[in-house]
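Need a sequence for this fold. Nothing fancy.
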Protein backbone atom coordinates (compact mmCIF):
# COMPACT_ATOMS: atom_id res chain seq x y z
CA UNK A 1 0.00 0.00 0.00
CA UNK A 2 1.41 3.39 -1.00
CA UNK A 3 0.71 6.31 1.33
CA UNK A 4 0.47 9.95 0.27
CA UNK A 5 2.87 12.22 2.18
CA UNK A 6 2.48 15.98 2.47
CA UNK A 7 4.76 17.27 -0.26
CA UNK A 8 4.26 20.84 0.88
CA UNK A 9 5.45 20.07 4.43
CA UNK A 10 8.30 17.96 3.12
CA UNK A 11 9.46 20.76 0.84
CA UNK A 12 9.39 23.33 3.61
CA UNK A 13 11.33 21.13 6.00
CA UNK A 14 13.92 20.12 3.43
CA UNK A 15 14.42 23.62 2.07
CA UNK A 16 14.77 25.40 5.41
CA UNK A 17 18.29 24.12 6.13
CA UNK A 18 19.79 23.34 2.74
CA UNK A 19 23.57 22.95 2.52
CA UNK A 20 26.06 22.47 -0.30
CA UNK A 21 27.12 18.81 -0.50
CA UNK A 22 30.59 17.75 -1.54
CA UNK A 23 30.97 15.66 -4.72
CA UNK A 24 31.28 11.91 -4.33
CA UNK A 25 31.01 8.70 -6.29
CA UNK A 26 27.56 7.17 -5.86
CA UNK A 27 26.36 3.63 -5.22
CA UNK A 28 23.45 3.04 -7.55
CA UNK A 29 20.10 2.80 -5.79
CA UNK A 30 17.93 -0.25 -6.35
CA UNK A 31 14.40 -0.94 -5.14
CA UNK A 32 14.56 -3.77 -2.60
CA UNK A 33 13.21 -5.05 0.70
CA UNK A 34 14.28 -6.98 3.78
CA UNK A 35 13.45 -9.76 4.18
CA UNK A 36 13.75 -10.11 0.42
CA UNK A 37 11.24 -12.89 -0.26
CA UNK A 38 8.38 -12.11 2.15
CA UNK A 39 7.56 -10.39 5.41
CA UNK A 40 9.29 -11.71 8.51
CA UNK A 41 7.52 -13.93 11.00
CA UNK A 42 5.80 -11.91 13.74
CA UNK A 43 5.93 -13.20 17.30
CA UNK A 44 2.58 -13.86 18.98
CA UNK A 45 1.70 -13.19 22.61
CA UNK A 46 -0.03 -15.67 24.90
CA UNK A 47 -3.34 -13.98 24.09
CA UNK A 48 -2.78 -14.67 20.37
CA UNK A 49 -2.20 -11.03 19.43
CA UNK A 50 0.83 -10.10 17.34
CA UNK A 51 3.61 -8.50 19.37
CA UNK A 52 4.95 -5.11 18.35
CA UNK A 53 7.79 -5.20 15.88
CA UNK A 54 8.74 -4.86 12.23
CA UNK A 55 7.71 -7.42 9.63
CA UNK A 56 9.46 -5.91 6.60
CA UNK A 57 11.46 -2.84 5.50
CA UNK A 58 11.28 -1.65 1.89
CA UNK A 59 13.31 0.88 -0.07
CA UNK A 60 10.39 1.90 -2.29
CA UNK A 61 12.29 4.54 -4.21
CA UNK A 62 15.37 6.66 -3.53
CA UNK A 63 13.62 8.84 -0.99
CA UNK A 64 10.91 6.57 0.43
CA UNK A 65 11.23 3.89 3.12
CA UNK A 66 8.26 1.71 4.02
CA UNK A 67 7.90 -0.25 7.26
CA UNK A 68 5.34 -3.03 7.54
CA UNK A 69 4.62 -3.62 11.22
CA UNK A 70 3.43 -6.71 13.05
CA UNK A 71 0.90 -4.66 15.01
CA UNK A 72 -0.08 -0.98 15.21
CA UNK A 73 2.54 0.93 17.16
CA UNK A 74 1.63 4.49 18.23
CA UNK A 75 5.17 4.99 19.57
CA UNK A 76 6.97 4.04 16.35
CA UNK A 77 8.33 7.50 15.53
CA UNK A 78 9.49 7.89 19.16
CA UNK A 79 11.42 4.66 18.71
CA UNK A 80 12.93 5.92 15.44
CA UNK A 81 14.25 8.90 17.43
CA UNK A 82 16.44 6.72 19.68
CA UNK A 83 19.97 8.06 19.23
CA UNK A 84 21.49 4.64 18.59
CA UNK A 85 19.31 4.07 15.54
CA UNK A 86 21.56 6.07 13.23
CA UNK A 87 21.75 5.64 9.46
CA UNK A 88 25.04 4.65 7.82
CA UNK A 89 26.06 4.77 4.17
CA UNK A 90 25.66 1.20 2.89
CA UNK A 91 28.99 1.11 1.06
CA UNK A 92 30.88 2.57 4.00
CA UNK A 93 29.25 0.13 6.41
CA UNK A 94 30.30 -2.90 4.37
CA UNK A 95 33.85 -1.56 3.95
CA UNK A 96 34.22 -0.74 7.66
CA UNK A 97 33.11 -4.24 8.60
CA UNK A 98 35.55 -5.72 6.10
CA UNK A 99 38.59 -3.74 7.28
CA UNK A 100 37.75 -3.90 11.01
CA UNK A 101 37.38 -0.14 11.49
CA UNK A 102 33.66 -0.20 12.30
CA UNK A 103 33.96 0.48 16.05
CA UNK A 104 36.61 3.19 15.81
CA UNK A 105 35.50 5.33 12.84
CA UNK A 106 32.28 7.13 11.94
CA UNK A 107 30.66 8.34 8.74
CA UNK A 108 27.54 10.24 9.64
CA UNK A 109 25.38 13.00 8.26
CA UNK A 110 25.45 15.26 11.33
CA UNK A 111 26.79 18.78 11.94
CA UNK A 112 30.10 17.43 13.33
CA UNK A 113 32.50 14.94 11.79
CA UNK A 114 34.91 12.59 13.57
CA UNK A 115 38.41 14.01 13.11
CA UNK A 116 40.36 11.83 15.55
CA UNK A 117 39.91 9.38 18.39
CA UNK A 118 43.10 9.64 20.42
CA UNK A 119 42.36 6.58 22.52
CA UNK A 120 42.83 7.11 26.22
CA UNK A 121 42.96 10.89 25.74
CA UNK A 122 40.18 12.53 23.72
CA UNK A 123 37.89 12.55 20.70
CA UNK A 124 38.08 15.50 18.31
CA UNK A 125 35.07 16.49 16.19
CA UNK A 126 35.14 19.18 13.51
CA UNK A 127 32.47 21.25 11.81
CA UNK A 128 30.76 19.67 8.79
CA UNK A 129 30.75 22.52 6.28
CA UNK A 130 28.32 20.67 4.00
CA UNK A 131 25.70 19.96 6.66
CA UNK A 132 22.14 20.09 5.38
CA UNK A 133 20.93 22.26 8.27
CA UNK A 134 22.46 24.87 10.62
CA UNK A 135 26.24 24.67 10.81
CA UNK A 136 27.99 23.86 14.08
CA UNK A 137 28.63 26.91 16.28
CA UNK A 138 32.28 25.92 16.95
CA UNK A 139 34.95 24.83 14.52
CA UNK A 140 35.99 22.01 16.87
CA UNK A 141 34.33 20.08 19.68
CA UNK A 142 36.71 18.10 21.88
CA UNK A 143 35.38 15.39 24.19
CA UNK A 144 37.55 14.21 27.08
CA UNK A 145 36.88 12.01 30.09
CA UNK A 146 37.64 11.71 33.78
CA UNK A 147 35.94 9.12 36.02
CA UNK A 148 36.10 11.13 39.28
CA UNK A 149 33.56 13.92 39.73
CA UNK A 150 35.89 15.96 41.95
CA UNK A 151 38.64 15.78 39.31
CA UNK A 152 36.20 16.91 36.62
CA UNK A 153 35.37 19.97 38.69
CA UNK A 154 39.06 20.72 39.25
CA UNK A 155 39.72 20.65 35.50
CA UNK A 156 36.76 22.94 34.88
CA UNK A 157 37.99 25.45 37.44
CA UNK A 158 41.49 25.28 35.98
CA UNK A 159 40.07 26.23 32.59
CA UNK A 160 41.39 23.15 30.76
CA UNK A 161 37.82 22.21 29.78
CA UNK A 162 34.75 24.35 29.07
CA UNK A 163 31.99 22.16 30.57
CA UNK A 164 31.86 19.10 32.85
CA UNK A 165 29.07 16.56 33.12
CA UNK A 166 27.47 14.73 36.04
CA UNK A 167 29.04 16.62 38.93
CA UNK A 168 28.39 15.55 42.51
CA UNK A 169 25.31 17.01 44.23
CA UNK A 170 27.55 17.84 47.18
CA UNK A 171 29.42 20.32 44.94
CA UNK A 172 26.28 22.12 43.83
CA UNK A 173 26.42 24.98 46.36
CA UNK A 174 30.09 25.70 45.64
CA UNK A 175 29.49 25.74 41.87
CA UNK A 176 26.48 28.02 42.23
CA UNK A 177 28.56 30.43 44.32
CA UNK A 178 31.40 30.57 41.78
CA UNK A 179 30.86 33.53 39.44
CA UNK A 180 33.25 32.02 36.86
CA UNK A 181 30.93 29.03 36.41
CA UNK A 182 27.34 28.45 35.31
CA UNK A 183 25.29 25.61 36.82
CA UNK A 184 22.92 23.73 34.48
CA UNK A 185 20.52 21.06 35.74
CA UNK A 186 19.48 18.18 33.55
CA UNK A 187 15.83 17.18 34.20
CA UNK A 188 15.33 13.73 35.66
CA UNK A 189 14.52 11.18 32.94
CA UNK A 190 13.98 8.59 35.65
CA UNK A 191 11.78 7.83 38.63
CA UNK A 192 13.29 6.39 41.78
CA UNK A 193 10.74 4.22 43.57
CA UNK A 194 10.27 1.86 46.48
CA UNK A 195 9.41 -1.53 45.02
CA UNK A 196 7.31 -4.30 46.60
CA UNK A 197 7.31 -8.04 45.92
CA UNK A 198 3.66 -8.97 46.44
CA UNK A 199 4.42 -12.69 46.81
CA UNK A 200 5.63 -12.19 50.35
CA UNK A 201 3.86 -11.00 53.49
CA UNK A 202 3.30 -8.43 54.80
CA UNK A 203 3.50 -6.46 51.52
CA UNK A 204 1.31 -9.08 49.82
CA UNK A 205 -1.57 -7.13 51.40
CA UNK A 206 -2.51 -4.06 49.37
CA UNK A 207 -3.44 -2.21 52.55
CA UNK A 208 0.13 -2.57 53.83
CA UNK A 209 1.50 -1.24 50.55
CA UNK A 210 -0.96 1.65 50.68
CA UNK A 211 0.06 2.40 54.26
CA UNK A 212 3.71 2.65 53.28
CA UNK A 213 2.75 4.72 50.26
CA UNK A 214 1.10 7.41 52.39
CA UNK A 215 3.42 7.22 55.41
CA UNK A 216 6.43 8.67 53.60
CA UNK A 217 7.31 12.34 53.38
CA UNK A 218 8.66 11.98 49.86
CA UNK A 219 9.31 15.70 49.42
CA UNK A 220 11.67 15.55 52.41
CA UNK A 221 13.74 12.92 50.59
CA UNK A 222 13.96 15.06 47.45
CA UNK A 223 14.91 18.14 49.46
CA UNK A 224 17.57 16.41 51.55
CA UNK A 225 19.29 14.08 49.11
CA UNK A 226 18.81 15.31 45.53
CA UNK A 227 20.39 18.14 43.52
CA UNK A 228 18.39 21.14 42.35
CA UNK A 229 16.22 20.44 39.34
CA UNK A 230 15.10 17.14 40.86
CA UNK A 231 11.36 16.86 41.38
CA UNK A 232 8.92 14.99 43.56
CA UNK A 233 7.58 12.06 41.53
CA UNK A 234 3.82 12.45 41.18
CA UNK A 235 3.53 9.34 38.97
CA UNK A 236 5.72 6.37 38.08
CA UNK A 237 6.69 7.64 34.59
CA UNK A 238 8.98 10.69 34.49
CA UNK A 239 6.70 13.64 33.76
CA UNK A 240 9.18 15.12 31.25
CA UNK A 241 7.60 12.56 28.90
CA UNK A 242 4.64 14.04 27.08
CA UNK A 243 1.36 12.38 28.11
CA UNK A 244 2.95 10.06 30.68
CA UNK A 245 1.45 11.59 33.83
CA UNK A 246 -2.27 11.38 33.18
CA UNK A 247 -4.48 10.56 36.15
CA UNK A 248 -4.29 11.50 39.82
CA UNK A 249 -1.06 12.53 41.49
CA UNK A 250 0.36 10.38 44.29
CA UNK A 251 -0.99 10.56 47.82
CA UNK A 252 0.01 13.26 50.28
CA UNK A 253 1.57 12.05 53.51
CA UNK A 254 -1.04 10.96 56.09
CA UNK A 255 0.34 9.18 59.17
CA UNK A 256 -3.07 8.67 60.80
CA UNK A 257 -4.48 6.98 57.70
CA UNK A 258 -1.32 4.85 57.40
CA UNK A 259 -1.72 3.50 60.95
CA UNK A 260 -5.40 2.81 60.29
CA UNK A 261 -4.60 0.81 57.16
CA UNK A 262 -2.04 -1.29 59.02
CA UNK A 263 -4.58 -2.01 61.75
CA UNK A 264 -7.22 -2.91 59.16
CA UNK A 265 -4.76 -5.33 57.56
CA UNK A 266 -4.32 -7.06 60.95
CA UNK A 267 -1.14 -5.31 62.09
CA UNK A 268 -2.20 -2.92 64.89
CA UNK A 269 1.28 -3.19 66.40
CA UNK A 270 3.06 -2.53 63.13
CA UNK A 271 5.16 -4.80 60.92
CA UNK A 272 8.73 -5.89 60.34
CA UNK A 273 9.99 -5.06 56.84
CA UNK A 274 13.27 -5.75 55.04
CA UNK A 275 14.45 -3.03 52.66
CA UNK A 276 17.04 -4.24 50.13
CA UNK A 277 19.42 -1.89 48.34
CA UNK A 278 22.91 -1.50 46.91
CA UNK A 279 25.32 1.25 47.87
CA UNK A 280 26.15 2.29 44.29
CA UNK A 281 25.01 5.89 43.59
CA UNK A 282 22.96 6.55 40.49
CA UNK A 283 21.51 9.70 38.92
CA UNK A 284 18.10 8.57 40.16
CA UNK A 285 19.49 7.82 43.66
CA UNK A 286 22.59 9.84 44.63
CA UNK A 287 23.03 8.39 48.16
CA UNK A 288 21.20 5.05 48.56
CA UNK A 289 22.20 4.33 52.16
CA UNK A 290 21.30 7.82 53.38
CA UNK A 291 17.91 7.64 51.65
CA UNK A 292 17.27 4.17 53.06
CA UNK A 293 18.17 5.34 56.56
CA UNK A 294 15.75 8.25 56.26
CA UNK A 295 12.96 5.96 55.05
CA UNK A 296 13.72 3.64 57.97
CA UNK A 297 13.27 6.54 60.40
CA UNK A 298 10.12 7.84 58.71
CA UNK A 299 8.35 4.47 58.70
CA UNK A 300 9.16 3.89 62.36
CA UNK A 301 6.67 6.68 63.12
CA UNK A 302 3.79 4.39 62.04
CA UNK A 303 5.15 1.21 63.62
CA UNK A 304 6.99 -0.19 60.58
CA UNK A 305 10.29 -1.63 61.78
CA UNK A 306 12.68 -1.56 58.80
CA UNK A 307 15.84 -3.68 58.54
CA UNK A 308 18.28 -2.50 55.87
CA UNK A 309 19.83 -5.18 53.68
CA UNK A 310 22.73 -3.55 51.81
CA UNK A 311 23.78 -5.98 49.07
CA UNK A 312 26.73 -6.37 46.72
CA UNK A 313 26.11 -4.23 43.65
CA UNK A 314 26.91 -6.89 41.04
CA UNK A 315 24.26 -9.37 42.15
CA UNK A 316 21.56 -6.95 43.26
CA UNK A 317 19.84 -6.33 39.92
CA UNK A 318 19.78 -10.04 39.07
CA UNK A 319 18.03 -10.80 42.36
CA UNK A 320 15.60 -7.94 41.81
CA UNK A 321 14.63 -8.97 38.28
CA UNK A 322 14.25 -12.63 39.25
CA UNK A 323 11.93 -11.82 42.15
CA UNK A 324 14.37 -12.89 44.87
CA UNK A 325 14.23 -9.56 46.70
CA UNK A 326 11.57 -9.99 49.35
CA UNK A 327 9.62 -7.24 51.03
CA UNK A 328 10.71 -3.83 49.77
CA UNK A 329 13.64 -2.82 47.57
CA UNK A 330 15.04 0.17 45.71
CA UNK A 331 14.51 0.36 41.95
CA UNK A 332 13.64 2.89 39.26
CA UNK A 333 11.76 3.52 36.05
CA UNK A 334 14.48 4.10 33.44
CA UNK A 335 12.79 4.43 30.04
CA UNK A 336 14.58 3.23 26.92
CA UNK A 337 12.97 6.08 24.99
CA UNK A 338 10.68 8.96 26.06
CA UNK A 339 7.23 7.50 25.59
CA UNK A 340 4.53 6.80 28.17
CA UNK A 341 4.09 3.06 27.62
CA UNK A 342 7.82 2.38 27.72
CA UNK A 343 7.99 3.70 31.29
CA UNK A 344 5.32 1.27 32.48
CA UNK A 345 4.80 -1.64 30.11
CA UNK A 346 8.22 -3.18 30.65
CA UNK A 347 7.64 -3.36 34.41
CA UNK A 348 3.89 -3.98 34.58
CA UNK A 349 2.76 -5.23 31.15
CA UNK A 350 2.10 -8.76 29.93
CA UNK A 351 5.79 -9.51 29.33
CA UNK A 352 6.99 -8.15 32.69
CA UNK A 353 9.00 -10.40 34.97
CA UNK A 354 8.66 -11.18 38.68
CA UNK A 355 10.47 -8.12 40.08
CA UNK A 356 7.17 -6.95 41.59
CA UNK A 357 5.96 -10.47 42.32
CA UNK A 358 2.77 -11.61 40.60
CA UNK A 359 1.37 -9.47 37.82
CA UNK A 360 -1.57 -7.15 38.42
CA UNK A 361 -4.19 -8.41 35.90
CA UNK A 362 -6.12 -5.16 35.36
CA UNK A 363 -2.86 -3.24 34.94
CA UNK A 364 -1.64 -5.78 32.39
CA UNK A 365 -4.87 -5.57 30.40
CA UNK A 366 -4.86 -1.75 30.34
CA UNK A 367 -1.21 -1.57 29.30
CA UNK A 368 -1.69 -4.13 26.53
CA UNK A 369 -4.59 -2.08 25.19
CA UNK A 370 -2.67 1.20 25.43
CA UNK A 371 0.33 -0.25 23.61
CA UNK A 372 -1.70 -0.54 20.41
CA UNK A 373 -4.17 2.33 20.76
CA UNK A 374 -3.60 4.81 17.91
CA UNK A 375 -6.14 7.47 18.87
CA UNK A 376 -4.43 10.09 21.11
CA UNK A 377 -7.55 10.88 23.16
CA UNK A 378 -8.35 7.22 23.78
CA UNK A 379 -4.72 6.58 24.68
CA UNK A 380 -4.70 9.44 27.19
CA UNK A 381 -7.84 8.00 28.79
CA UNK A 382 -6.14 4.63 29.09
CA UNK A 383 -3.08 6.14 30.77
CA UNK A 384 -5.38 7.91 33.23
CA UNK A 385 -6.74 4.49 34.19
CA UNK A 386 -3.26 2.92 34.22
CA UNK A 387 -1.73 5.51 36.54
CA UNK A 388 -4.78 5.43 38.82
CA UNK A 389 -4.57 1.63 38.98
CA UNK A 390 -0.94 1.90 40.07
CA UNK A 391 -1.99 4.44 42.68
CA UNK A 392 -4.66 2.02 43.92
CA UNK A 393 -2.62 -1.21 43.93
CA UNK A 394 0.72 0.37 44.97
CA UNK A 395 3.14 -2.09 43.36
CA UNK A 396 5.68 0.71 43.88
CA UNK A 397 5.88 4.08 45.64
CA UNK A 398 7.27 6.77 43.29
CA UNK A 399 9.60 9.12 45.16
CA UNK A 400 11.88 11.28 43.01
CA UNK A 401 12.86 12.26 39.49
CA UNK A 402 16.59 12.70 39.97
CA UNK A 403 18.25 15.52 38.05
CA UNK A 404 21.97 15.59 37.27
CA UNK A 405 24.35 18.53 37.21
CA UNK A 406 26.38 20.11 34.41
CA UNK A 407 28.73 23.03 35.04
CA UNK A 408 30.23 25.29 32.38
CA UNK A 409 32.59 28.22 32.22
CA UNK A 410 30.81 31.57 32.11
CA UNK A 411 32.04 32.13 28.54
CA UNK A 412 30.07 29.13 27.23
CA UNK A 413 26.99 29.92 25.13
CA UNK A 414 24.22 27.69 23.78
CA UNK A 415 24.60 24.65 26.08
CA UNK A 416 21.11 23.27 26.73
CA UNK A 417 20.61 20.31 29.06
CA UNK A 418 18.88 17.28 27.53
CA UNK A 419 16.54 15.09 29.64
CA UNK A 420 17.91 12.06 27.77
CA UNK A 421 21.52 13.23 28.32
CA UNK A 422 22.13 13.80 24.62
CA UNK A 423 23.17 17.46 24.67
CA UNK A 424 23.55 19.00 21.20
CA UNK A 425 27.20 20.06 21.41
CA UNK A 426 27.12 21.46 17.88
CA UNK A 427 25.00 24.32 19.27
CA UNK A 428 27.68 25.38 21.75
CA UNK A 429 30.34 28.03 21.37
CA UNK A 430 32.87 29.62 23.72
CA UNK A 431 33.41 33.37 23.57
CA UNK A 432 36.87 34.11 22.21
CA UNK A 433 37.54 30.52 21.07
CA UNK A 434 36.80 28.29 18.09
CA UNK A 435 36.93 25.13 20.25
CA UNK A 436 34.49 23.79 22.84
CA UNK A 437 35.80 21.08 25.21
CA UNK A 438 33.37 18.78 27.04
CA UNK A 439 34.44 16.57 29.96
CA UNK A 440 32.42 13.44 30.69
CA UNK A 441 32.77 10.45 32.99
CA UNK A 442 34.24 7.83 30.68
CA UNK A 443 35.74 6.94 27.33
CA UNK A 444 33.44 5.26 24.80
CA UNK A 445 33.86 1.53 24.36
CA UNK A 446 33.16 1.88 20.64
CA UNK A 447 31.58 4.21 18.09
CA UNK A 448 29.27 1.98 16.04
CA UNK A 449 26.06 3.46 17.39
CA UNK A 450 23.74 0.53 16.67
CA UNK A 451 25.84 -1.77 18.84
CA UNK A 452 26.63 0.55 21.76
CA UNK A 453 24.71 1.10 24.98
CA UNK A 454 26.84 3.23 27.29
CA UNK A 455 25.99 6.93 27.51
CA UNK A 456 29.56 7.98 26.75
CA UNK A 457 29.46 6.31 23.34
CA UNK A 458 25.91 7.26 22.45
CA UNK A 459 26.61 10.92 23.21
CA UNK A 460 29.32 10.90 20.51
CA UNK A 461 26.82 9.33 18.14
CA UNK A 462 24.38 12.16 18.86
CA UNK A 463 26.90 14.69 17.52
CA UNK A 464 28.03 12.88 14.36
CA UNK A 465 25.22 10.54 13.33
CA UNK A 466 21.52 11.02 12.60
CA UNK A 467 18.47 8.82 12.36
CA UNK A 468 15.14 9.29 10.65
CA UNK A 469 13.97 11.14 13.76
CA UNK A 470 15.70 12.70 16.77
CA UNK A 471 14.73 14.47 19.97
CA UNK A 472 14.05 18.18 20.19
CA UNK A 473 16.86 20.20 21.74
CA UNK A 474 16.32 20.21 25.50
CA UNK A 475 13.19 18.06 25.17
CA UNK A 476 11.83 14.55 24.60
CA UNK A 477 9.51 15.03 21.61
CA UNK A 478 10.47 13.24 18.39
CA UNK A 479 11.20 15.51 15.43
CA UNK A 480 12.17 14.63 11.83
CA UNK A 481 15.87 14.52 11.01
CA UNK A 482 16.84 12.49 7.92
CA UNK A 483 13.14 11.99 7.26
CA UNK A 484 10.90 14.93 6.49
CA UNK A 485 8.12 12.93 8.14
CA UNK A 486 6.53 9.51 8.48
CA UNK A 487 2.85 8.69 7.89
CA UNK A 488 0.96 5.61 9.08
CA UNK A 489 -1.85 3.85 7.25
CA UNK A 490 -5.36 3.93 8.73
CA UNK A 491 -4.89 0.53 10.36
CA UNK A 492 -1.43 1.47 11.68
CA UNK A 493 0.26 -1.52 10.05
CA UNK A 494 2.25 0.40 7.42
CA UNK A 495 4.44 3.42 8.07
CA UNK A 496 6.01 5.26 5.16
CA UNK A 497 8.83 7.77 5.63
CA UNK A 498 9.98 10.38 3.12
CA UNK A 499 13.71 11.23 3.20
CA UNK A 500 15.35 14.61 2.72
CA UNK A 501 16.75 15.04 -0.77
CA UNK A 502 19.75 17.18 0.17
CA UNK A 503 21.70 14.98 2.61
CA UNK A 504 25.20 13.63 2.10
CA UNK A 505 27.32 11.51 4.41
CA UNK A 506 30.65 12.84 5.55
CA UNK A 507 32.36 10.73 2.88
CA UNK A 508 30.29 12.53 0.23
CA UNK A 509 27.88 9.69 -0.55
CA UNK A 510 24.27 10.74 -1.03
CA UNK A 511 21.64 9.44 1.42
CA UNK A 512 18.99 7.18 -0.07
CA UNK A 513 16.41 4.68 1.16
CA UNK A 514 18.82 1.77 0.65
CA UNK A 515 21.09 3.20 3.34
CA UNK A 516 18.18 3.21 5.81
CA UNK A 517 17.17 -0.32 4.90
CA UNK A 518 20.70 -1.71 5.26
CA UNK A 519 21.44 0.15 8.51
CA UNK A 520 18.26 -1.09 10.17
CA UNK A 521 18.24 -4.62 8.70
CA UNK A 522 21.84 -5.14 9.82
CA UNK A 523 20.80 -4.56 13.45
CA UNK A 524 17.45 -6.34 13.17
CA UNK A 525 18.30 -9.60 11.41
CA UNK A 526 20.80 -11.99 12.98
CA UNK A 527 21.19 -13.65 9.56
CA UNK A 528 21.94 -10.40 7.69
CA UNK A 529 25.44 -10.30 6.13
CA UNK A 530 26.09 -6.93 7.82
CA UNK A 531 24.97 -8.11 11.29
CA UNK A 532 28.40 -7.41 12.74
CA UNK A 533 29.35 -5.02 15.53
CA UNK A 534 31.79 -4.45 18.34
CA UNK A 535 29.88 -6.95 20.49
CA UNK A 536 27.30 -8.08 17.93
CA UNK A 537 24.54 -7.91 20.56
CA UNK A 538 22.61 -4.92 19.15
CA UNK A 539 20.82 -4.93 22.48
CA UNK A 540 19.09 -1.58 22.11
CA UNK A 541 17.55 -2.41 18.74
CA UNK A 542 16.56 -5.91 19.85
CA UNK A 543 14.90 -4.67 23.03
CA UNK A 544 12.95 -1.86 21.38
CA UNK A 545 12.33 -3.07 17.81
CA UNK A 546 12.68 -6.85 18.06
CA UNK A 547 14.93 -9.45 16.45
CA UNK A 548 14.60 -11.38 13.19
CA UNK A 549 16.11 -14.88 12.85
CA UNK A 550 17.17 -14.92 16.50
CA UNK A 551 18.41 -18.51 16.11
CA UNK A 552 21.28 -17.20 13.99
CA UNK A 553 22.40 -15.20 17.04
CA UNK A 554 22.18 -18.23 19.28
CA UNK A 555 19.21 -16.75 21.17
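Here you go.
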Amino acid sequence: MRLVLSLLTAGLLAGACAGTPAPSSEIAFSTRSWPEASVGECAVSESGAARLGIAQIEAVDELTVRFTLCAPDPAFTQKLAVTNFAVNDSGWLAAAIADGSLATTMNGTGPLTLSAWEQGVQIVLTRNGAYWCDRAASERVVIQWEPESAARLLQLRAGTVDAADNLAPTDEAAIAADSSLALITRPGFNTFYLNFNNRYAPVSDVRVRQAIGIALDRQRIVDLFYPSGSTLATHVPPCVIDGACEGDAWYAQDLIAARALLAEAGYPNGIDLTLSLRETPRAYLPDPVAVATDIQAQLAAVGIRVTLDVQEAGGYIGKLLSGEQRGASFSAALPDYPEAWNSLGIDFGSTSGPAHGDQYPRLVALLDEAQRELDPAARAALFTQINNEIRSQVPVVPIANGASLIAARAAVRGLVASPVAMERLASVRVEGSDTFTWLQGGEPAGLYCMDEEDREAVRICAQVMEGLYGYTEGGTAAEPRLATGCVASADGLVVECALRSDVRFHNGARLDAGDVLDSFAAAWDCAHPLHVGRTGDFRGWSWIMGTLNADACGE
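For context: The CA atoms of residues 164 and 439 lie 5 Å apart.
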